[in-house]
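Need Hydantoinase/oxoprolinase family protein's 3D structure for a figure. Predict it.
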Amino acid sequence: MTQKPQLRIAVDIGGTFTDMAAFDEASGRLLFGKALSTHGELVKGIQATIDSAKIDWRDGHLFLHGSTIAINTLLERNGAKTALLITEGFRDIYEIGRVNRPDAYNLFFNKHQPLVKRSLRFEVAERLRADGSTHKPLDEAAVRELARDLKGEGVEAVAVLLLHSYRNPSHEQRVKQILQEELPGAFVCASHELSQEYREFERVSTAVANAYVGPRVSQYLGQLEDHLGQQGFEGDFYIVQSTGGLFPVEHAKVGCVRMLESGPAAGVIGAQAICAQLGMGDAIAFDMGGTTAKAGVISEGRPLTTGSALIGGYERALPIQIPMMDIHEVGTGGGSIARVETGKALRVGPQSAGSIPGPVAYGRGGTEPTVTDANLVLGRLDADNFLGGELKLDLAGCQRQMHERIAAPLGLDATQAADGILQIAVTQMSHAVKAVTTERGLDAGSFTMVVYGGAGPLHASAIAREIGIRKVLIPYAPGYFSAYGMLFSDLRYDYVRSVFRKLNDLSFDEIEAAYQKMEDEGRAALAQSGVQADGVVIERAADMRYVGQEHAVTVDLPLAFFEGKDRAAIKKQFDQLHQVRYGTSAPQEPADLVSLRVTVLGTMKKPPKHSVAQGTAVPEAAAVRAVKPVYFRSTGWAQTPVYLRDRLLAGNQITGPALIEEHASTTVIQPGDALRVDELGNLQIEIGSDRT
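Structure prediction for Hydantoinase/oxoprolinase family protein:
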């Protein structure tokens, strides 16, 4: 009798590396694989991670996937030729936007650039009122004629935004149906399918972004499905959303924009699992890979999420109005290129060497020094032991390029130049952490920073010092952590409805009916998912604001508030959050309910806790691989022990300076730091006061 497939396989594609983590649900065993990302042939990189771990697809019953393909398509502006159909009289709202001017005195300021040029934006004769009733019927004949014109233009994707479709989607549904009849090969997206909230600019931006990335993302997912079938995989294929939850690949092909931040979100889910295992309520999740660094927050055991995000930075951002993890990203990673600009200014990033050609150290044709090269020059990476010796690094080439391109133009030696590169990178990465803590009214110094990603542990101590964080945790397998985090993800469906009611006037029967309708949709979606969830969890929230305010904050609302019809508790919850977020609140002022939110989770079986054997305070002699010179700003070059992480035991204590090496990452323990290995194998670091 053939054994039932037991593997849950997760793959995360990053800018430099593709990572794989697999969980054998029968034995509890974890398997890992890593390979350079193969841009242009992403499926090839995925297969390479499977091969490196000696896994057979036929043994898998569930495949979970996160990829940067959607966000990269958006940021690199290489998506489909897209048209926009919009309500008559509103052709230019996508370009006008919110008229933000964040830098009032910048004469060279440029506003956001639409993904659809004006000549491909077309008005549709129709109009709904704010309550969803019809003011002007839809001119179907005109839409059909327009669709034929678009076919002649060679349009690959079409976004549809009709005013007030969140109240009544009938016009959008009919326009989409006509477009699909006349343009059978095009990707068509209607705004109500993605967002049931008001704000027409954010809605049109979301719909256009989805249409723009849709053909490329859906084609890629189709290719991956075909590859899985050819390899004998007969299980279920799920995509990680920007919330960290899972949804079927069929849904991902339609709502591609929901996977913009899939990899980073999975890392935060993994950090949340670590917090739960240790009974730790608050943490900063920090991920540094080859291209970018990302930060998110776990507060009181739950990741902070947002109902919308600005993609591409505040100044020129395109808003995306879907639920997602509240993550801030900066263009600094291991592959970030350092260069000397006019006026002898040293810059690091956001340009990245990626996987091709990669850092100088990789010996694949790269000539511009990167953050990874700086770490090699300073002795923090080992040329002969990178990725367990699978990839030999070119130290001589790094030193030569560091001298010629950075050190000599600045009048420094190679060591000083490399140290300067790391200092700039650390400062830039600290901005990501401050953006999700200090700028949210949170005290970063009171949080433990959970650091992962292949390059994260190299810089964890330095970033913590920069911000004033006192505790750092390096989890098990940090170099594979986003893929590992996917194994802790649950099936997830998010729903939102704009209501516009004053809290004091709202009937609890009305609000309960609205919530129940969304919850029923979520339960039905779970039932159709094909995966047997262990249980169902319902979470409620609401966007609230004081009467007279424009912008709202999202407030988590326990079910008990509704069972007890406790209007005062809802108001108090809002007041407290407003105080944290803005430093002020107005308990005597009335509040509005703007939108209702529901999250329906289908909980999945989680991998067991990783554990290590108990040891003494002093690590075993076999744990020390070598002693070598490493550069630290506070001490200069110092003889530094190098420990093998898989030889460290629970209770082991190490005082910096030290390096902890493992297959896909190296942790730097600065002079003055104190490390302790906990029972789960995490490296818990108390940050010293010495500067790096």
